[in-house]
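Reply to dn_fold:

You asked what the input looked like. This is it:
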Amino acid sequence: MSKKLAILSSVVLAATVLAVGSVSAATISVGNDTSARTGLDTAQNFTIIDKNNPATADGNLTQFKYYASNTSPFRFVLVDGSSVVRWVSSQITPQTTGVNTYVPSSPIQVQAGWNVGLYFVSQGTIPFELSGQPAYYTSANSGVPSVNSTLNFAGNGARKYSFVATGETPSTQKPAKFYVGNSATQRTQVDNYSNFTIIDSNNPATDSGKLTKFKYYAANTNSFRFLVVDTDNIVKWISPKITPRSTGANTYIPATPVKVKKDWRVGMYFASTGTIPFEQTGQPAYYTNNNNGKPSVGSKLNFAGNSNRIYSFVATGEKDRNGRNNGNSCDRNRNENRNGYGYGNGNCDRNENRNGYGNGNGHGNENCGNSNNVPKWRFNYFPFWNWNAMHQQQQNQNCDQ
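and this is what came back:
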């Protein structure tokens, strides 16, 4: 007993040291500020890169704030130190003149020294002042730049544009985020079908995890539902009826986090005509027949057709965390995957997978795998610890409950 307490005390001390030594996320930025400036570009269909204040560190950009002198559409562009295009946003139409915010559907990876620029469809949207570092521009009517292309500049001039992009460096404390969908920006078109379902194929789940928040733009206050489908178009979850509080940006928080797997998609069921607007671009959106009815969980959607569309919503959540092992985490509703440094897959139904090196595929039991005869109390406190060095006697057991 005294030895057990001594070991536990040592682990508590080690865990405390690890906690104190954790590195929290630091904010990074690219660009300038959102001040009202007076200059506006007159060239059309071209790209310009602002070289003032490149990325301060490696990380992920999560938000772009900008000042809009008008509501002409535009795009943000990210380039590396060799002027190779690394990312181009979807088309952005400011909701109003003045300060606006654009949130990309998923974080944008950036490296220190990279720069953000702008592609203007028609006249310039974001103003500038004639100062600062040279801004490099392409020829008028050079078109939307494509990812991985190298920009061919026609000239440069000292300019400072009214935008700033911010984000975070990688964190060891915060759970990793993941996204499904696009952005909650205002778009112009609304479905005229009623009592039907449509699945947006743009930006499926990048990882497995749980969705905790749905942001969307409402063109009206018609009620609707969000739903999640797997790669075989089986309905895995459907929300209760959602009625937007107002037109514009809204947020829906599900009562419990919604489990999704990589490549699953989010769609909408519209009881009457469409609520969330779209633009006719992007990947195909698959829809059921008009008056097809509300889908049920477990059913497979029968699509009537598809059309390229990007809808104004984004769902966010946290990735699954499996510790330092290859175990697949179980449903935390009466399930736990407590792998240490094991290689077990915890496919659990009301069980606990407490593997050392075994595979715990149980229903109503504990599969202890090759547990190395380690006492159970160690898992309750520090499942991440490598206890195998302390207990060498191996045994296999299947612990039916």
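Residues 141 and 294 are 46 Å apart (CA to CA).
Hope that clears it up.
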